[in-house]
Hints:
The structure holds two protein chains of two kinds.
Chain A: H1 4-7, H2 25-32, H3 43-49, E1 56-59, E2 62-65, H4 69-80, E3 85-89, E4 103-104, E5 109-110, H5 111-124, E6 128-132, E7 134-142, E8 145-152, H6 167-171, E9 175-177, E10 186-188, E11 190-191, E12 203-204, H7 214-218, E13 231-237, E14 239-242, E15 246-248, E16 266-268, H8 269-276, E17 297-304, H9 320-334, E18 339-344, H10 354-364, E19 367-370, E20 375-378, E21 384-390, E22 395-401, E23 403-408, E24 410-412, H11 416-423, E25 435-437, E26 441-445, E27 450-452, H12 462-475, E28 504-509, H13 521-528, E29 534-540, H14 546-558, E30 563-568, H15 571-584, E31 592-596, H16 598-602, H17 609-629, E32 637-639, E33 643-647, H18 651-661, E34 666-670, H19 693-705, E35 710-713, E36 716-724, E37 727-734, E38 737-743, E39 745-748, E40 752-754, E41 769-771, H20 772-781, E42 789-796, H21 810-824, E43 829-834, H22 844-855, E44 858-861, E45 869-872, E46 878-883, E47 890-895, E48 897-902, E49 904-906, H23 910-917, E50 944-946, H24 956-976, E51 978-980, E52 986-988, H25 998-1002, E53 1008-1011, E54 1016-1019, H26 1029-1033, ...
Chain B: H1 2-7, E1 15-20, H2 24-33, E2 42-47, H3 55-63, E3 68-73, H4 84-102, E4 109-113, H5 119-136
Amino acid sequence: MPDQSDDIVPQYYEDVPLEDDYLIQVPEIVMLDDEFVDLETEVKIVSEMGIRTKKRTIEGDVLIVGAGISGMQAALDVADKGYRVVLVDKSSTIGGNMVKLDKTFPTNDCSICTSAPKMVEVSRHPNITLLTYSELAGLDGEAGDFTAHVFRKSKYVDPDKCTGCDDCTEVCPIEVISPFEEKLAKRKAIYIEFPQAVPIVYTIDYENCVGCGACERVCEPNAISFLEKSDDIEVKVGSVIVATGYEVFEPLEMRQEYGYGKYPNVITAMQFERLLSSFGPTEGKAKRPSDGEKPKSIAWIQCVGSRSKQLGFPYCSRVCCMYATKEAAITKEAEPDTDMTIFYMDLRAYGKDFQEYYDNAKELGVRYIRGRPSSVYQNEDKSITIRYMDTHTREVTEKTVDLLVLSTAIMPSKDNKRLAEVLGIEVDESGFLKSESILSDPIQSTRKGVYLAGCNQGAKDIPDSVAMGSGAAAKAMVPIKDREQVVPAEPVPEKDVKGEPPRIGVFICHCGKNIASYVDVASVTDYAVTLPNVVYTTHEMFACSEDIQKKIKEKIEEEGLNRIIVAACSPRTHGPLFEDTMAEAGLNKYLFEMANIRNQCSWVHSHEPEKATQKSKDLIRMSVVKSALLEPLEERESDVIPKTLVIGGGLSGMRAAIALADMNIDTFIIEREKELGGNLKDLHSLFPSEIEASEIVNPLIERIKNDPHITVYTETELLGVDGFIGNFTAKIKAGEEEMELQFGTVIIATGFREINLDGRYGYGTSPKIVTQMDLEKKMKDGTLDKVKNVVMINCAGAMDEERPYCCRIGCGVAIKNAHLLKGLNPNAEITLLYRDIRVFGKDEEEYFANVIENDGVKIVRYLKEEQPDVSVDEDGNVTVTVKDAVYGDELTLTADLVVLTAQTEGGVETEKIKKMLKVPTGSGGFFTEAHAKIRPLDFASDGVYVSGSAHYPKNLADSIAQAEGAASRASIPILQGIVKGEGIISRIDPDKCSGCGLCVEVCPYGALQLDEDLKIAVVNVTLCKGCGACSGACPSGSARQMGYRDNQILAMLGSAMISGD
Amino acid sequence: MEDEGGAKESWEPKIIGFFCNWCSYAGADLAGTSRIQYPTTIRIIKVMCSGRVNPQFVLKAFQEGADGVLVSGCHPGDCHYIEGNYHARRKLTLMEDLLEFTGVDPSRFQMSWVSASEGQKFAEVVTEFTERIKKLGPQTKLSGGEG
């Protein structure tokens, strides 16, 4: 995006002609310049193409501004519910910041690999209209009836004609510093941001284009049109979701002591991500900008621009500790001899599996030094020397590294003020968009009908952004819930290919350089064409890109293909994309096979290119023989009971039920306790504020009582759950009465609890030793005696061998309670023992800084190996001894009250629910979502969703966003009305079955039964999940797992042994 | 046996892997994402669950000339289909006796538990298994060939 727009006061007035709009000034001047008269001759041709001059109007239901991961998720959630989305992004592609990242913590998933399928899904969704290179310029009307004005800048390239061939960039003489590559590389004045961009249409950057026409002359499909005008589009919608993301702080003015912009080998972490990215400027190799050499030592400085009111922003940027850890660990794994150091203040590894990830990085040899460097200087060899004080040794010393990476702050988008004005919403003091209430309605903006998602109100990691995107998709339903849904287009009629000889098409992917650098794709392609039944082969830069989907469809027609094989990455991530493409071409999606030549070949045999090439041929051959034996399978459709069961009536369960009720969907809440409210009803107040918990929880309970859509069962036990998505039955025992509930989807919201400290830290030996939860209750009931000397011990029972994880909320709770105790007795001496203060994100850090500054709470750091000791003497006096890790002193503290911030674990019913709903749990007994990054609310099993602390402990705002997100996910099957079953199920060959009953015994779902009359086994196809256990056990070969039949697997086996060529 | 393996320096064993879709296949994918290098000896056949693996597949693999067969599923307790890996374990433990009976060294057959997050472990399993098969040399009992 041109920077120019930042300087001009952005305005939009109805009466100002478009030509005068700030965005178009430059292009128009360029066009009218006499220099370009030679273009005049082209005018006629262009005008024949038809230039839009009239105002376009798009009718939609929800407008979404910003197509990063959060906006895309919101768009998909709304569109899947059957409503029309208009998705606007100012960039020429969708994808946002996430696509710039190399991998994502804490699972090391490749970022582009997880976001690209979502991007393609968005661009292909029939209910989504995509407006890229466009900005929101106005919003009139009110919730339920908005008229938005969207200014779509011309790309000067016809999207229908552009094939993404890249010929234009080769001839373009103008080089421009690439903002996508974080200024590390150049692009041309005609460009796409990155190879997997969606839509794959080139864009002419008018500010830099000199109008030489070179691109136009080489463009074979005649896609370039210099006279194509920008246009002003009117979008009519009922609600608006704003998901405009963040920018990264550039330490050019503030924090210039770290030498960014002055020394070439000082870069930002985002720049380092681009270096690590396989499609970045160095193709995934960490190189020093000064000489392109491999750095032998790298250091990171954390909190550059964060956690400082004077030199940046007061808040914590929430993600930097983990991305620095990730960058260091990945580089260390690839280059074990490189020296890695991270300079940090507090290491905030607060989320699910973060602490373990951090521990692993330390084991790999990443060094963590606690201290904020004061300055850096450059040496003659361009290496960088960092001056710092290690707060543990209190020594001021220096360290020299080849490359210095600055973990710079996540900051509000510079466009936020203009955007807020346009939208009629407010910004906060830092410039982030403001939520109506961070504690009770984080997604609601300050204007009715306008909702917020992602990082535009503060930094978030990817799963939190995704969850909030889904949450916004639930809220955005409120103003439009009474509208008619879009009637889905009839699916492309399926071609009957039964009996046809197989005609296989093989599409081989380069995956940029990921495959092509190690596997000779041309030779693999030449080989594939020689295989039996293969009639078409090709190799492509990115098989998952949009143009290749188009090509696959074309080739199915042209070549009469009836089987498709894609040799690329993993079917687990990309299979569904290609299957959809086939369905669009009328081919049954079960006629698809994938050969995994990236994850299981090129990436793991990169030192042995010849063998990798051979293996790729083998894998493709194996797929080809299986493909020839594939048969079309049918997915049974079944109706969805339009109700949701919410297990757990705590905050997140209640919020999920309310969000569903707001969409006119009936819910049942079942709660073990007598009252709704969960942990919240026992809490005194909620951080980062002093708002009493009852102020939050009571209105919710009241609302639920009066909501006709919600039925509550308290003192209720779940006895069992049967069924599958769309059609579940639960047996419950409400009081003494047993009954059955029927519903289509389930949300697990069973929360968390403090662990049993079991005598550790003297817990249970003295009334003076309590947990934070005990303290909350005492404060709430007013039974807390006046205390003078208080010691709080954070991480009690946490981050040790038994429970290696961080509880995410303890630091915030402890600081709030320290503040409250100080309020009760201003003379109280409060000492907080901590390992790292993990008050992450916006608001929490500021709250913490304020408490430390104004309340005089003393904080003492201790190390994992030097746990504090709590002892109680005969007279009942409590003493805490601890070694101060910063000053090295042994402290002995007498205490009237010791408050233990106890580790947390999953709710008490976790084990039971896990078995009933067949969903997994991980560390600490918290439920494991389908994908840690991009599917945080779903389970691998359909129709079951997770929300709130059942997933992992979290604060109020995150819990609410997640609960509303889970409600959105759970409502999708209900609003769609039907679900499609599995095609991969088992069938019994009645002629072969001897009725031995082995399959009945091994089936975990009770899907097989012996027919008493026929004396053979029969399959209940709605219960069958397609595991194939019956086929594995069947001695006669009569139990057939469709898609994995014996003959298919045996054919693969046989072909695996033949030598490639 | 050892002589045989030692004699052919360039000989590469052929290993067939049956990997469950949910854990082990994903673990193999993760080894890729993490760029962990391992020998090119294995050809993976994806099945939905390790419980799908019929003993016939193992015998057939040896007949077709495989030098080793590896079956891998979710860790005990983690099966996506609740108990498929237990069935696999029970069935395939018996497999070892059957192999012994047919004259194939049972150590040419292995079961392992690799979760979706164990890319490193997956690579180790393949590397160690390859080393073992290399020592055993080509499998000729069932394939009938000379290796």
